[in-house]
Amino acid sequence: MLTRQAARQFSHFRHFLTPKPILPSKIRQFSTDPDHLVDKMVSSTFCHVAQCQPKSFSEEEKKTKVLEPRTISHSYRKFVIPLSTDTDKQKEYLSASGSVRLGKILEDLDHMAVHVAYVHNSENGTLDEPMTLPRTIVTASVKRIDLNKVDIHPSRDIIIDGQVTYAGTSSMQVCLRLFQNDDNGNLMHLLKAEFIMVSRDPLDGTKKVRVHGLTARTPDEAETINQAKEHFRIMGNSANRQPSNEEFNLIHDMYNELIGRSMVHDVAVLSNSEMWMHKTNLSVTEICFPEYQNMYGKIFGGFLMRKALELAHTNAKLYCKGRVAIRSMDQIEFRKPVEIGHILHFDSLVTYTQGKYIQVKVAATISDQHKLPELAKLNNPTLGEEARVNTNVFNFTMESVENPNVLRVVPKHYVHTTSYLEGRRLLNNTLKRLV
């Protein structure tokens, strides 16, 4: 049976209740079924994409073929990460603290989101059947990932399930969840994630390919679809990211306070409980090897999320000088594909703090030694060989486990002020949801 906490969580995910998640008593049987292992999920997606024949459809067919709407339950799938029986998996997923590496979970979530999106757009709801139209489905962004439990047991099976909860013309929202048994054998809800997927032409990634629509069978499903539709509308409105009058006043009052501490005109002074934002920078550089590629020959988005998460976690840990727990990930954007051979740079900043909570932003950029002049032209001609192109943005909310009052971060430059306000919004929204 579900714990009371898990039952409360289900009230927020009513569109998942048909079909119901697997019962704890059946997890052992489920985890030994090779068709439900997470590796099978990944391999079946690869095989499905490999069978795609983009030249078998004419341009007219791509535009006129009737795509019947699906139901939410049509794409529902569940798989297991067999940590109780697979010792190699245990080692692969084990973190330095003795819990499960959340970075590895992010990779599985990205694979699962792609898998579910392909199921939604396959003939007869199975990846053994061909695509209804030739398409490449990729992750455009991650709307949100919320964690309900800090530590995940490293030797108990993890159940991952998900389904498409919104479909537009060429974009979809996929909702995913994670479950694991607790000490008493009750099924706990660990995590909920919402991925935004897009469908593109395999022969020309700039062209959109239509996806199957979504029809609601119950009022709850209709509410879920409408909420996601509203999110897509807001997401496309840049005015929602502009600072409000209240935020302008907040910055003004902050600098009045900082300058008021100094005997010298217009010199800002920090207290012992504050730190300049630019001094929180922590960076790492990677070379993109073929082992990190996805089924399309690009660098796997799950790998990018894992590296960004691990950098953000390290930065937050150094900032508060103690253990931290990951609570949420928001507004993860995949702006440009990353190619094999690119030099990949991750730069992190602590953008906002409140009590024991820390907001960290990670920006990913690429440089290519063979295309430096082109990159410089795209980016800024004055940058020369230092030119980079932005590819990804990640935002993480961390909680200090040992220090209830971390240093207050303060922006010194205008570019950091915008990051500060963005971090404040994200952290406040996370606290409203989780606390």
Give the SSE layout:
Blueprint: H1 4-10, H2 27-31, H3 38-50, H4 59-64, E1 70-71, E2 77-81, H5 87-93, H6 102-120, E3 136-147, E4 158-167, E5 171-181, E6 187-201, E7 204-208, E8 214-215, H7 219-235, H8 245-260, E9 274-276, E10 282-287, H9 301-320, E11 324-334, E12 343-354, E13 357-367, H10 372-379, E14 389-400, E15 408-410, H11 414-434
Parallel strand pairs: 1-8, 9-15
Antiparallel strand pairs: 2-4, 3-6, 3-11, 4-5, 5-6, 6-7, 10-12, 11-14, 12-13, 13-14
Helix pairs in contact: 3-6, 6-9
Question: How would you describe this structure to a colleague?
Answer:
It is globular and about 75 Å long. 39% of the residues are buried. The chain has 11 helices and 15 strands. The chain has 435 residues and is an alpha+beta fold. A hairpin with a 3-residue loop joins strand 4 and strand 5. Helix 3 packs across helix 6 and helix 6 packs antiparallel against helix 9. Strands 2, 3, 4, 5, 6, 7, 10, 11, 12, 13 and 14 form an 11-stranded antiparallel β-sheet that branches. A two-stranded parallel ribbon has the order 1-8. Strands 9-15 form a two-stranded parallel sheet. It has 2 domains: 232 residues, Hotdog Thioesterase (Thiol Ester Dehydrase, Chain A); 165 residues, Thiol Ester Dehydrase, Chain A (Roll), CATH 3.10.129.10.
